[in-house]
Amino acid sequence: MITREPIFLPPPRGRFEAAGRKCLADLRETGVCTKYLASALWALRLLPASRRMRKESVAQMFVAGIKSLPVITFVAIFTGMILALQLGLELQRYSQELYIGSAVMVSLLREMGPFMTGLILAACVGSSMAAQIGTMSVNDEIAALEIMSIDPVRFLMAPRLAAMIVITPVMSFYTCMMGVLGGGVVGMTQLNINWNQYVQNALEFADLRDLYVGLFKALLFGMIIATTACYEGFSTRNGAVGVGQATRRSVISAFLLILVVGYFVTRLFYNG
Amino acid sequence: MIRFEHVTKRFGAKTVLDDVSYEVRKGEVFFIVGPSGTGKSVSLKHMVRLLQPDEGRVVVAGEDISHAPDSALERMRERFGYLFQGGALLAWLSVADNVALPLREKTKMSEEEIHDKVMRTLALVELENDADKMPSEISGGMQKRAGLARAIVRDPEIVLYDEPTSGLDPVMSRHIDRLIADLNNKLGVTSIVVTHDLNSALSIGHRIAMLKGGHIVELSTPEAFRASTNPDVREFMDAQFKIQS
Q1: Which residues of B, range 139-158, sit inside 8 Å of A by Cβ?
Q2: Dihedral of alpha carbons A213, A127, A83, A175, sign
Q3: Is the ipTM of this complex over 0.90?
Q4: Which residues in chain A touch residue B91, judged by CB atoms under 8 angstroms apart?
């Protein structure tokens, strides 16, 4: 059941009770959120057979991918330019500025690409998902689906999750390429590096493992964005104010989880 | 058909339903009336377990819906159609697609059959010419009628109406009354209607329950309700009919 009643408890008798209650509530909500994710992943088995789910997933991919493209392009190019400029100026002191291609490529593939993409999609797409589902919750649309015996997780969350699982790695790869392009422009115009040398150096040091790990991270970030957005949307109460709060919470939760999960994936794959 | 057994519901310190017991019979048009904030919609939500009682239980066709496992709940809810106060239409689907939604998701009907069924149902609520409009393009009353079409499109055994005539003009209100009565007469649908509109309750209701202060203060036929000497009923009737006169 998605539609849940508010829990009313008597006022806590002290700070310890209040803290204990908060911990228990957070654990309970983490469990609920994980249950939604598991249900949505399980519902994805229906994707090949369900025309509606496929259509909805493609529509969500369009929103997450095409509509976010301008901002992602802008951020990626400037991230690459900043990286190249900062590294290039330092490396220039040791006459090693030729290596900015590899430095930009590796840092973007391993960390910056998926991380920047995750943050942008959490802010642009996750917030809009949370607001849309939150509005549906306060307008009784989620309750109406449940009474029609239509599972809101299957109907709403699964297509969004599918879209984010596909589109986040794609956009992450695109961010990397745009970042490398931005770095190249700085290399050519400010560090006097030949474009061919820059590209050759970037490709020479690019490891396939860096690419795979980066894409894997992006996939996890996509799941995080869709799950936090849908969970916060489903949990929305109290009208327009509640929708605003749910949107804010979904973005903050996604940001924090992206940082934490990003660290642990890096540790898993690059730990000696 | 639906039995409330000593149901108590609290929201924090406020007791909304206090040891309420009553039964809605199969094939009956049952009205729940009363002042705002007395638990009418809360009662309706207990019938489909959008809310669970703190004490007591709600039994639907012999099964305890209040404590049923999720798998049984889905099956039990298929008996119901539910008209929400605001219609609760999905904003990104047209009126026809909203009405078709339960058929597409829960039946194996072909698109042609679904289209026929949807248009026939929309004709019942006089919305057949607005089938392709989006919910944002129609008035609140039309949204409510579209919500009603969606609630009855799968021919449910029980239909719950939350304020079906609020926001509608008097002509359309009486049309909705006739539709509720027709569903009951022709198809034997059990209808539970939450309303402030005593005209509807007195003209098509088989029985009327009045809720006040978390209790049922009157449960009787329309004739007995009209003649009731209960001060709460008199006050409610006088207030409504004075305003109308």
Answers
A1: 147, 150
A2: positive
A3: no
A4: 135-136, 141
